[in-house]
Amino acid sequence: MLSSQQLEKFIADGYIRIDRAFPKELADQGREVLWRDMGVRKSDPKTWKRPVVWLGGYHDAPFVSAANTPKLLSAYDQLVGPDCWVPMRGLGTFPVRFPTDTDTGDTGWHLDASFPGPDSAADDFSSWRVNVNSKGRALLALFLFSDVGELDAPTRIRVGSHALIARLLEASGRDGIAVRSLDFASTSACKEVAATGEAGTVYLCHPFLVHAAQINRGHAPRFMAQPPLFPKKELDVREEKSSPIYPVEAAIRAALERSGAAV
């Protein structure tokens, strides 16, 4: 189980790192599936033509098992609340990043959208929205399926940025704001950390945490899944509650209280 210090860190920083969240053997098995589907030869770097290969959601046994270890199931309960999240039946998209010196054009600061608005396009997720209740998203998870060092395209994280985003979203209420309209520059003063770790490491992130990809300056491909954990129902951060408030919601409420916004 996560310690009280880890839960406090999640509320303050917007993420926690869980080492050995799933066995390395599952990471090894998962990579073999991904190599198979990319149409390149693992042993021949000359076939690694593209700097990024996007692979869709996976429901093979290694991925389902990785998403549902006892350690992670306990963490989901502690961060979101028991019976408040939808069980994972696999893992989301895999952006496999190969070594390159070329700007891949997808390394800007952002957060992941949660739901479409009336003017959203189905194929343009920058037009999709996020609201202060984090409708449609309970957590962002980063599952490392390969060892990721500083040069291996680790995801960049702006520590504490989730609180600034919560304040930006407060005025728009349930309607939310399109991701492309959010002022990510307002989080530029946040400390930056890199999501490094051995295969089997998982970062559990607040849905409002601002993050960014980067190119792979290492020597081997980086394999990482970035699935959402879906909530069973939308939060209401304005509601007075006598029931327990779990860290995902507590972080939003704390951010709004610090800004003087009514909760």
Q: What does the model show?
A:
This protein is an alpha+beta fold and 263 residues long. It has one domain (4-259): Sandwich (Jelly Rolls). It is 25% helix and 14% strand. The chain has helices at 4-13, 24-38, 61-67, 70-80, 161-170, 247-259, and strands at 15-18, 52-55, 94-97, 129-130, 139-144, 156-158, 177-178, 192-194, 202-205, 211-212, 224-225, 228-229. The longest helix is centred in the N-terminal third of the chain and has 15 residues, at 24-38. The protein is globular, with a radius of gyration of 18 Å. The mean pLDDT is 95.
Give the H and E element order: HEHEHHEEEEHEEEEEEH
Secondary-structure content class: alpha+beta
Number of strands: 12
CATH homology-level superfamily: q2cbj1_9rhob like domain
Give the CATH topology: Jelly Rolls
Number of domains: 1
Query: In which range does the helix fraction lie?
Result: 25-40%
| Spatial gap, N to C terminus | 30 Å
Query: Per the principal axes of the C-alpha atoms, what is the gross shape?
Result: globular
For the record, the CATH class is: Mainly Beta
CATH architecture verdict: Sandwich
Poorly predicted segments: none
On the 0-100 scale, what is the average pLDDT? Answer: 95
Number of helices: 6
Keywords:
263 residues; alpha+beta; Jelly Rolls; 12 strands; 3-stranded antiparallel beta sheet; globular; 6 helices; 5-stranded antiparallel beta sheet; 25% helix
Compact overview of the structure:
The protein has helices spanning 4-13, 24-38, 61-67, 70-80, 161-170, 247-259; strands at 15-18, 52-55, 94-97, 129-130, 139-144, 156-158, 177-178, 192-194, 202-205, 211-212, 224-225, 228-229. By secondary structure, it is α+β, with helices and mostly antiparallel strands.
